[in-house]
Write a structure and sequence with these properties.
- With about 240 residues, the protein is an alpha/beta fold.
- It folds into two domains: about 160 residues, 3-Layer(aba) Sandwich (Rossmann fold); about 70 residues, no CATH class.
- About 30% of the residues lie in helices and about 30% in strands.
- The chain has nine helices and ten strands.
- The strands form two sheets. It has a six-stranded mixed beta sheet, with helices on both faces. Strands 2-1-4-5 form a four-stranded antiparallel beta sheet, with helices on one face.
- Helix 3 runs parallel beside helix 6.
- The longest helix is centred in the C-terminal third of the chain and has 16 residues.
- It is globular and about 45 Å long.
């Protein structure tokens, strides 16, 4: 079993301070504060409708920040765009299996390289991604839309990694996948964080599986944070029902 619980003195890649956001006049997220450093996986857990997805959409620039601040490497991007987030190394992988179904796997991955920092060796990054998920190399010419759900999830993660992100925002990566596939993907996420070059904010309802790789955990309920703890402390709980 892979476990997180790493301690890090690395600078914070992401700091969210008193964030308020929502849709139009409807505020969904209320004064949320959290942070993610390089080398750690931070779990953001909560029930459906708790505000987790709304929060990361605002962090990534897809929704307006109605209050508070979003900082990346100390730079305030609260009024920034998605392009600003990508330029600073953020990558958002939505809960749906986002692939280009009419293109083959290799073409999907190469499209992800469009957002890579200038000077990135595209071929080297492709080799890195295909080493993480060998099936993507084995089936490079297969249409992405013909893949299983788990394989499409690997492609979507590969697309994001082709851009050499420094911070991954993942929304329910285990959704609808077989346990063996979830274990493989989560293991890959832990290895990526362990390089010390990347931070990961993981939104999940699969608490037990997430706790095998997370270092710290936040829990949201009804748009607010109700718990900020370590994964080790979270694993000592007899039950999680009171949090959801």
């Amino acid at each position: 079993m892979l476990t997180g619980d790493r301690t890090t003195d690395a600078p914070r890649l992401l700091s969210v301070e008193g964030l308020r956001t929502g849709y139009g006049r409807k505020q969904v997220v209320h004064d949320v504060g959290l942070h993610v450093a390089a080398g750690e996986i931070v779990g953001l857990m909560g029930h459906n409708g708790a505000g987790k997805t709304t929060l990361i959409r605002a962090v990534h620039g897809l929704l307006p920040v109605q209050g508070g601040r979003v900082l990346v490497d100390g730079a305030d991007i609260s009024r920034g765009s998605v392009a600003d987030s990508i330029r600073l190394g953020l990558a958002l992988i939505p809960s749906e299996r986002f692939v280009f179904p009419d293109l083959n796997i290799r073409a999907n991955l190469l499209l992800g390289a469009v957002n890579a920092p200038r000077g990135t060796d595209r071929d080297a990054q492709l080799a890195f991604v295909e080493a993480l998920f060998p099936i993507l190399a084995d089936r490079a010419t297969q249409l992405a839309g013909s893949l299983s759900g788990g394989q499409q999830r690997m492609v979507s993660l590969g697309i994001a990694l082709m851009a050499k992100p420094r911070l991954l925002l993942l929304d329910e990566p285990s959704l609808g996948l077989a346990p063996s596939v979830v274990e493989q993907i989560f293991g890959t996420l832990r290895r990526l964080a362990d390089t010390g070059e990347m931070g990961i904010l993981l939104l999940e309802q699969n608490v037990k599986q997430s706790l095998t790789i997370c270092d710290r955990v936040y829990v949201m309920r009804s748009g607010s944070l109700i718990l900020d703890t370590t994964a080790a402390e979270m694993r000592t709980r007899d039950s999680y029902w009171d949090l959801f």
